[in-house]
Amino acid sequence: GSAAPALVSVAQGEDFTFLSLTGPAFDLSDRGVEGNPAAPPIDVFLTTDRGAYRAGEVIHATALARDDTAEAIAGLPITAILTRPDGVEYARHLSTGVGAGGHVFDMPLAGSAPRGTWRLDIHADPDAPALASTTLLVEDFLPERIDFDLALSTPRPSLNAVPTLTVDARYLFGAPGADLAVEGDLRLRPAATVEGWPGYRFGPHEGDLGTTWGALEPTRTDVAGQAAIAVDFPEVVADGVPLDAAFTIRVTEGSGRPVERNLTVPVAPSGPMIGIKPGFDEGLPEGAEADFQL
After folding, report:
1. What is the pLDDT of residue 196?
2. How many CB atoms lie within 10 A of CB 113?
3. 146-270 CATH fold
4. pLDDT digits over 97-134, tens only?
5. Best label site of 81, 134, 168, 286, fewest CB within 10 Å?
6. What is the pLDDT of residue 211?
7. Residue pair 157/172 in contact by the 8 Å Cβ criterion
8. 261: Cβ–Cβ under 8 A, 6 or more apart, which residues?
């Protein structure tokens, strides 16, 4: 009735406030009213000094370890694992703390670090799920100032040969890219197709040859912006399997920023190869005749 309370008022000194008890209720169920989950035995807060980095810079990360009552966990060894965009672990650092449950990690990036979204995970046990994770970007903030072309002395090299890979670098305003550092690597990997034989599949059906990596000798460009690299292929047993050679070359500008280019060429087979081409799509009905070409 009319005696029902209409509002609650609170006054102290010159301060006064009130809360109406008769107004419409607010439905906040769509705003997340369940609250935060209970803190685990080890609760970790993780942050980095920036969200984006250039290749060659250092990632500075800070982690705070607390227990389920928000008290600092002192002396807890934790491991920071930095993962590249392709999911490969890049670096791992162990910290025993700097006091008050705090941990600081300094993780340098190589100049050849791949661009993209990286992930940083914090573990108390490296074999257990991460206690905290964050992502960061590795990108080039400035536009490229140089460009370069790649060429191989033979378009289809053999593994026992030593072809020459040439680099022709120039600044975008026209001057030759003289005295610039050149480095790179190569990958030998099974080829998906063989030129001139579309639809044919080569190599054994079972087993995967995988990718074989090799390093190229670092050098520098001459006054004309050119460099020559002797390619020494790594040893690989690929009988009957067609291969591609994928070169990744980086030329470093005067500012220290690497510019990357890629070149992929087929490798001449070391012996005969057997190819098979199915005369049907992915499957055949029961009782049908399977046709193949060799």
Report:
1. 76
2. 20
3. Immunoglobulin-like (2.60.40)
4. 888 999 999 999 998 899 999 999 999 999 999 999 99
5. 286
6. 84
7. no
8. 148, 149, 150, 248, 249, 251
241: confidence class by pLDDT, cuts 50, 70, 90: confident
At which residue do the structure tokens 């509002």 appear?
Answer: 7
Q: What share of the chain is helix, strand, coil (3-state, %, to 5)?
A: 0, 45, 55
Please give the Cα distance from 215 to 230 (Å, whole number): 11
Q: What is the pLDDT of residue 118?
A: 96
Pairing state between β 132-138 and 116-123: antiparallel
pLDDT band at 190 (very low <50, low <70, confident <90, very high): confident
pTM above 0.70, yes or no: no
Q: Can you tell me whether residue 30 is helix, strand or coil?
A: helix
Q: How many other CB atoms sit within 10 Å of the CB of residue 41?
A: 10
CATH fold for domain 43-138: Immunoglobulin-like (2.60.40)
According to DSSP, residue 281 is labeled: S
Phi, psi for 31 (deg, rounded to 5): -105, 10
From-to residues of CATH 2.60.40.1930 in the chain: 43-138
pLDDT for 205 equals 67
- How far, rounded to the nearest angstrom, does the alpha carbon of residue 162 sit from its chain's CA centroid? 31
Cα distance between residue 108 and residue 217, in whole Å: 23
SS3 17: strand
Please state, in angstroms and rounded to a whole number, the distance separating the CA atoms of residues 177 and 147. 9
- Of 254 and 158, more confident: 158
Chain-centre distance for alpha carbon 144:
21
Nearest Cα residue to 262 out of 277, 251, 254: 251
- CATH 2.60.40.1940 positions along the chain are 146-270
| Residue 120, phi then psi, degrees to nearest 5 | -120, 120
> Does the structure show a pLDDT above 80 at 72?
yes
pLDDT of 77 above 70? yes
Q: Is 280 helix (H, G, I), strand (E, B) or coil?
A: coil
